[in-house]
Design a protein that fits this description.
- The structure is a single chain.
- With 362 residues, the chain is an alpha/beta fold.
- It has two domains: 212 residues, Quinone Oxidoreductase, Chain A, domain 1 (Alpha-Beta Complex); 134 residues, 3-Layer(aba) Sandwich (Rossmann fold), CATH 3.40.50.
- 21% of the residues lie in helices and 26% in strands.
- It has ten helices and 17 strands.
- Strands 3, 4, 5, 8, 9, 16 and 17 form a seven-stranded mixed β-sheet that branches. Strands 12-11-10-13-14-15 form a six-stranded parallel β-sheet, covered by helices on one side. The protein has a two-stranded antiparallel ribbon with strand order 1-2.
- α3 packs across α4 and α3 packs across α8.
- The longest helix is centred in the last third of the chain and has 13 residues.
- The protein is globular.
- The two termini are 27 Å apart.
- The structure holds nicotinamide-adenine-dinucleotide (NAD) and zinc ion (2 copies).
- One zinc ion binds next to loops.
- GO terms for molecular function: mannitol dehydrogenase activity; zinc ion binding.
């Protein structure tokens, strides 16, 4: 097989790629496949910057292959559909999240959990079934099988809606699955970044009482007044942790860096559930005493299936939930990554691909 990214497929494409673990992104010519009979092609309008993009371009999980075009919160407008496509038509507003293929035959795919398929193809830096590598949404056009296309409701904006395709579903899915979507439940959200701030919005929409757990006291006023959280807890404040001990039904842990599990499980009621969605690059320490007394559950959750992603987006549209975003041009992306590493973003960077990418083409 032709290994050159530029000529591997018939359709020329352009994006920004990282070339090595410095994570610096720069213009990159590559190629995409033609629109197959089950495929949808769309012009990318916006792409969110997930912390996973940052972990990946810097090879923090040790699995990166370069050149790597990140981006899995991708929205745009359909430009071409294959002959068998029924879901959408040219001109429709659509999105693609973290997955672009799965086996579609295993028990997990059959149960709409493509995200737990043993043969998933992630949207970037993943081997596709034809042996080529996937490239993400910091690029001009996307092409994907219609099953992996999410339809955008009319009132859901393509910019502030984009982060829901990863951040949104990643927190919505565990709230539902672990029974934390019940009115009156006390939920904590640990880490108030891209995932965390939408977790607060979904938990409030489910009728929960919400505590934000953050390292930064500076975020308190905004969490309470703007995001609608009920309480705010500074994770380093032992007195506050003590006062909140044993009060929570569930915690969605979105923290991207190594941190203490035991100080979080201590906040749970007996039978409470701590659900990890953040993916720090180093192992977390788990003393048995964190979960055995009180029969607590420590669980994980990874994005969501396609049916649930559509359900999440429709729910968000109905409840006016979008991400709080800072829209940036593509040539700001390296600065945005530095700021994201420091937690300096309210709360998601979204790249204006549609209006800024083409001008950077060499
Ligand atoms: N499981 C999944 O399906 C999934 C999906 C998307 C992202 N992720 C992972 O989730 C994590 C968060 O992603 P994001 O895009 O929201 O990142 P983000 O950088 O926007 O948010 C992370 C937040 O955690 C805060 N934080 C760091 N250390 C903390 C501590 N000790 N206590 C409290 N807060 C702390 C940061 O200040 C930041 O606000 C990343 O590791 C990412 O890779 C997982
Ligand atoms: Zn993501
Ligand atoms: Zn499968």
């Amino acid at each position: 097989m032709d290994k050159s990214p530029e000529t591997r497929h018939p359709v020329p494409a352009f994006g920004w790629a990282a070339r090595d673990p410095s994570g610096q992104l720069s213009p990159f010519n590559f190629s995409r496949r033609e629109t197959g009979e089950d495929d949808v092609r769309f012009k990318v309008s916006y792409c969110g910057i997930c912390h996973t993009d940052l972990h990946c371009i810097k090879n923090e999980w040790g699995s990166a292959n370069y050149p790597l075009i990140p981006g899995h919160e991708i929205t745009g407008v359909v430009t071409e559909v294959g002959s068998k496509v029924k879901k959408v038509k040219v001109g429709d507003k659509v999105g693609v999240g973290c997955l672009v293929r799965s086996c579609r035959t295993c028990e997990h795919c059959a149960n709409d959990y493509e995200n737990y398929c043993p043969k998933p193809v992630f949207t970037y830096d993943a081997p596709d079934y034809d042996g080529t590598v996937t490239y993400g949404g910091y690029s001009d056009y996307m092409v994907a099988n219609e099953h992996f296309i999410i339809k955008f409701p009319d009132n859901m904006p393509l910019d502030a809606g984009a982060p829901l395709l990863c951040a949104g579903i990643t927190v919505y899915s565990p709230l539902k699955y672990f029974g934390l979507d019940v009115p009156g439940t006390h939920i904590a959200v640990a880490g108030l970044g891209g995932l965390g701030h939408v977790a607060v919005k979904f938990a409030k929409a489910f009728g929960a009482k919400v505590t934000v757990i953050s390292t930064s006291p500076k975020k308190k006023q905004e969490a309470l007044e703007h995001l609608g959280a009920d309480y705010f807890l500074v994770s380093s404040d032992q007195d506050q942790l003590k006062a909140a001990k044993g009060t929570m039904d569930g915690i969605i842990d979105t923290i991207s860096a190594p941190h203490s599990i035991v100080s979080l499980t201590g906040l749970l009621k007996p039978h409470g559930k701590l659900v990890l969605v953040g993916l720090p690059e180093k192992p977390l320490e788990l003393p048995a005493f964190a979960v055995v007394p009180g029969r607590k559950t420590l669980a994980g959750s990874n994005i969501g299936g396609l049916k649930e992603t559509q359900e999440m987006l429709d729910f968000a549209a109905k409840h006016n939930i979008t991400s709080d975003i800072e829209v940036i041009p593509i040539d700001y992306v390296n600065t945005a990554m530095e700021r994201l590493a420091k937690g300096d973003v309210r709360y998601r960077f979204v790249i204006d691909i549609g209006n800024t990418l083409a001008a950077t083409k060499p």
